[in-house]
Design brief:
single chain; alpha+beta; 3 helices
Length: about 100
Amino acid sequence: MPTLTDGRIRHGVVFTLKHAEGSAEEADFLQANAALASIPGVEAFELMREVSAKNDYRFALTMEFVDRAAYDAYSAHPDHVSFVENRWIPEVSDFLELDSEAL
């Protein structure tokens, strides 16, 4: 992963779903999650399976934004808001979000 440069925002989330591992519901959620990459301003989108035995999260995602304004626009975008309300809240059992900028 490239080094985060000044002014950019990296949005990262690790999460666990309520769905059974390998289920059709899990696959459908992950596909819907991946569609967030098409929202304007999203760069360097990655959706990954967590492999660390040191935590209980099953998935991780990261994306970057050119600046705070692009991140704020993504957060308020209707597709993102809809995803959070209709998919994330009902289907995610636990998560940790990290939104970071370079020091």
